[in-house]
């Protein structure tokens, strides 16, 4: 059984990791760190998990350095993960990071989106981007996996079949996101009285997660825009991408392309063309699960395409993809701990 440490267990992604690990029978949770909550029971922060962890206490980070383990999840703020990752790797642990510290391989791209500094380049180059559907083989040989941006995941899973076929000419993506994307710490714009029942555009053209799509789908920035809009949800992302195709296609060829790309993927599913109300996926159909739904419609001219995806941002967009990557890195069935059915209606 793999011994697991979670660094930073009080946030939303840390809590989601705890929920998933409670169902992962091949992993044993040996420590969860929190500087401010050290010595307190986990359930004081995550009360829904009290039956799963009735006696486990938060551990101070300094004490966790001496805890024997095989695998570390880092659910820490951006810029805080890479020193911990280095120490864990030096101790022989495999590391799955959930921050942005290792997501972007190119230094200039990373600095243009996140500013100067950050993780040393040798660590960045050692990391594998942690989306199993795109990097399953590399993850099997890796000891360090990067986190994935939730909006980037919704976009990458929806568009990678088109990118591989050379069909993407232009992409205008809109991500409609729930409040949990903002994290556990309230912000002025995210405070419930001001956010609830509002439609607020957070980013009009560029979002940091867009950089991951440029990298993973090998796109030029001039061909992609990403708008992020806050909507009345707690969990979930609906991503709608208006695409200009590089050549005229027929819809039957798109169905064939997507079915082939999704073949054998446990968590990727196409929505049906009929009935019409199910053609474009609703995030409520995936909440609490590691699933991604994708639907599309082609315009009559054969050159304009609408592709829509839906994921749970805390699962497939964060903790679920992290556990999936960790399972592969540890030589386990990647579905372990992730065989979760959505709760519907939600």
Description:
- With 346 residues, the chain is an alpha/beta fold.
- It has two domains: 2-127, 3-Layer(aba) Sandwich (Rossmann fold), CATH 3.40.50; 150-311, 2-Layer Sandwich (Dihydrodipicolinate Reductase, domain 2), CATH 3.30.360.
- The protein has helices at residues 12-21, 61-64, 81-90, 107-114, 121-126, 132-139, 150-164, 192-195, 210-216, 251-262, 315-329; strands at residues 2-7, 27-32, 71-74, 94-97, 144-145, 168-177, 200-203, 224-230, 237-245, 268-270, 292-298, 304-311.
- α3 (81-90) links the parallel β3 and β4.
- The longest helix is centred in the middle third of the chain and has 15 residues, at 150-164.
- The radius of gyration is 20 Å and the shape is globular.
- The model has no long low-confidence stretch (mean pLDDT 94).
Overall geometry comes to: globular
In which order are the strands of the major sheet placed?
7-8-6-9-12-11-10
User: What is the average per-residue confidence, as pLDDT, rounded to a whole number?
Assistant: 94
DSSP strand count: 12
**CATH architecture annotation name of the largest domain:** 2-Layer Sandwich
Cα end-to-end separation = 35 Å
- At CATH level 3, the topology of the largest domain is Dihydrodipicolinate Reductase, domain 2
Total separate domains: 2
Relevant CATH superfamily of the largest domain? Dihydrodipicolinate Reductase, domain 2
Radius of gyration: 20 Å
Series of H and E elements: EHEHEHEHHHEHEHEHEEHEEEH
The share of residues in helices is 25-40%
């Amino acid at each position: 059984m793999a011994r697991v440490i979670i660094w930073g267990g009080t946030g939303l992604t840390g809590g989601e990791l705890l929920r998933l690990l409670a169902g992962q029978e091949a992993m044993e949770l040996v420590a969860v760190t929190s500087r401010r909550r050290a010595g307190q029971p986990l359930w004081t922060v995550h009360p829904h998990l009290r039956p799963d962890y009735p006696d486990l206490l938060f551990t101070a980070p300094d004490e966790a350095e001496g805890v024997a383990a095989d695998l570390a999840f880092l659910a820490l703020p951006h810029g805080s993960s890479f020193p911990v990752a280095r120490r864990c790797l030096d101790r022989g642990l495999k590391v799955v990071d959930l921050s942005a510290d290792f997501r972007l391989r190119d230094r200039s791209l990373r600095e243009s989106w996140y500013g100067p500094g950050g993780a040393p380049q040798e660590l960045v180059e050692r990391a594998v981007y942690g989306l199993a559907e795109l990097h399953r083989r590399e993850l099997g040989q890796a000891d360090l996996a990067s986190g994935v941006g939730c909006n980037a995941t919704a976009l990458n899973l929806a568009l990678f079949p088109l990118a591989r076929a050379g069909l993407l000419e232009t992409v205008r993506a809109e991500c409609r996101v729930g409040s949990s994307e903002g994290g556990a710490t309230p912000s002025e714009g995210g405070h419930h009285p001001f956010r609830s029942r509002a439609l607020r555009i957070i980013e009009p053209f560029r979002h940091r997660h867009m950089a991951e799509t440029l990298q993973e789908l090998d796109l030029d920035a001039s061909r992609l825009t990403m708008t992020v809009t806050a909507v009345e949800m707690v969990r979930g992302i609906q991503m709608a991408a208006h695409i200009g195709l590089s050549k005229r296609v027929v819809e039957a060829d798109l169905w064939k392309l997507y079915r082939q790309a999704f073949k054998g993927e446990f968590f990727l599913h196409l929505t049906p063309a009929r009935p019409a109300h199910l053609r474009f996926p609703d995030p409520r159909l995936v909440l609490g699960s590691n699933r991604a739904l994708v639907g599309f419609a082609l315009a009559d001219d054969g050159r304009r395409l609408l592709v829509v995806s839906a994921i749970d941002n805390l699962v497939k967009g964060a903790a679920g993809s992290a556990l999936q990557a960790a399972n592969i890195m540890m030589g386990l069935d990647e579905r372990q701990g992730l065989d979760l059915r959505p709760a519907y209606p939600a």
